[in-house]
Amino acid sequence: EIHIKEPIEKEVNPRLLPGELLLCEASTVYKYMQEDGSNRGTYGKLVCTNFKISFLDDDSASDDNEPQFKNKIVGENDITLQCVDQIYGGNTVYDEKKKLLTGQLRKYPEKLIIYCKDLRVFNFCLRYTKEEEVKRIVSGIVHHSQTPKLLKRLFLFSYASAAPNNTDGRNQTVMFETLEDWRDELERTKGNVKYKAVTTNEGYRISEKLPLYFVVPICISEESILKYEGRGIPIWCWSCHNGAALLKMSAFPKEQDDSTSQMQKAFLDGIYKTISKPPYELLKTDDLSSSLPSLQDIQTAYTRFKQLFLIDNSTDFWATDVKWFSLLESTNWLEIIRRVLKKAIEVVECLEIQHTNVLLIEESATDLCCVISSLVQVMMDSYSRTKSGFQSLIQKEWVIGGHGFLDRCNHLHKSEKEEAPVFLLLLNCVWQLVQQYPPAFEFTETYLTVLSDSLYVPIFSTFFFNSQHQRDTNKSGESLKTQSGPFRFLTVWDWSVQFDPKAQAFLNNPLYAEKPKPDKSQRRTARFKHQRQLSLPLTQAKPSTKRGFFREETDHLIKNILGKRIGKFINSSDEPPNSLREFYDSWHSKPVDYHGLLLPRIDGPEIKVWAQRYLRWIPEAQLHGGGTIATAAKILDLMEEVQSLQVKMDEEHSQAVSGGVHSVPMLRNSARLSSLFPFALLQRQSVKPALPTSTWKDLEDEDDLVKRDDEFVDLSGDML
């Protein structure tokens, strides 16, 4: 039964961005609400443009009751074409099994289900829509969101050619597009003594995969860089306070004839010898293709993982809830996060304790190299934990570093084989650190969630090219405003494009422990005592008796759950070396310096699901008046009160108020908010149904799942 709300009578037109064109539309479309299984919903118009799919109802016409955290580009009922994951069709009368919609359609469905990459699920009923409109809207949505397209067909170019020249609000983010940016970074990390920024690739004469400018050891000659188009050359990422450096290298292809292979091996041996001599530290190489899961394993794990959150209705949610932990572990996603964090800790230990240079090796050095190098810098460099520092890090290691966002996100729908959530893997790992050490980060988990959403908003160039070369070569084109000249792409780091100042306050951590500026009188004496230095105990620390991070990898449960195929990348016999264990245990036995080294806790239970990103659209998972938002609401209220008192004091002393005070959002009625805030407003309470007998029968083969003590954990309380 469908609880019908009368169709809207007044005309509602979509709000179009510059360069956005309306392609097709359908009236009298019924959108189901997701809260319960009662088929309640609202009538409206479904439209498809060259930028988004949008549902317009009578609420779309008014600006009343707008959420505090409103995205100015993508509304609550908007789906960018790049955000569409899969589209299914079904029949509302016979309730037949839903079918995946791709390519040419012979039969048009009465029900349309759109699964989004940000894990929203939209259910539309087309039963009351005119047949011609159904054909146009369904075929239009499938064609424009699922079929392969050319790069220049992306809305990115339409918007850049039509939008006015906005001011560039990069907020002090270093873009690493100039030689000076690289030299400044070398100077900041004290790496300019042993490393140099080179201009060898100007005009991309060496390689189109390398950036215009990059940093190599001073002893590396230009001839060496030119010889194999940059392959086999150690490229600098970052320098530690003790002089040790993190480097990366793209490996030579493995399938080569013997003579070529011997020449390349001799070349590499020469490079290794050169950079292992003084003044350089000893060198440790780490081939990430053999020590970490493959991109295919990562994609498989994430595909399984996201299915847990693409919930159509309450019945589906409660059906999976009773076996949540076994389903979660079987995806292997959290285990991959744990392994990546563990690898980053190993690299940190080499740099910090052993004073050894670490060279990360990967086929292209643009995937897992980016993940590990970024994590190491977040752990070791407090600057990378500020908002501008983290954004500069993403620019340096990912955007300019040549990560193939276009292919890995499959923005053009050309090849699913290349798709892998590598950047999402990094954000998931950083989130583990943010939720374990909140005062150490200037940004919040909401910032990370919004950043993950921005992957699919094609008005920013940041995440829509495979390399700096591809971006530069596609910059030239006809502009509607200037008649000719290069496109002026926006950067995602200008948050004012998506959010007003009040909404941007949710991206900043009010409890960030800002690094104190050293006193001038003490600066000379404290010069040689580096802020990030780690003090180890004089006596040897006893190994921890905890199982988890250092558990035996041959554990029976791990074997059964991960299976032989994925288990191939787990060290199946040896535990981590004693030095790593001592390093990990000794660091965690001491108080945390929020401006020093940070090591994540990675015992089994410590690796959590990023609840805000994955559960925010599921009303059944909410906590009414609770969760982290309840705490944040109280803190923000106190901050607002303190700021107002400060203004009054300044006025009394007739002092001009400086512009440095940031506005904070008003959250007076925090009891009315749910843990889904700020992404979803207060929802209807979902009632948990009685467990059907068939479900218990399904669980009989779950190895006595219900008898395990650790299964009786409040999911929402644990993860939110």
From TrEMBL:
Location of the protein in the cell:
Cytoplasm, Myofibril, Sarcomere; Sarcoplasmic reticulum
TM ranges: none
Q: Name one GO biological process term.
A: phosphatidylinositol dephosphorylation
Record GO cellular component, one term: membrane
The chain's coiled-coil residues are none
Gene3D superfamilies xrefs: Pleckstrin-homology domain (PH domain)/Phosphotyrosine-binding domain (PTB)
**SUPFAM superfamilies in the cross-refs:** (Phosphotyrosine protein) phosphatases II, PH domain-like
**Domain of life, per the record?**
Eukaryota
Q: Does the keyword Chloroplast apply?
A: no
* Similarity annotation: Belongs to the protein-tyrosine phosphatase family. Non-receptor class myotubularin subfamily.
Identify this protein by name: Myotubularin-related protein 12
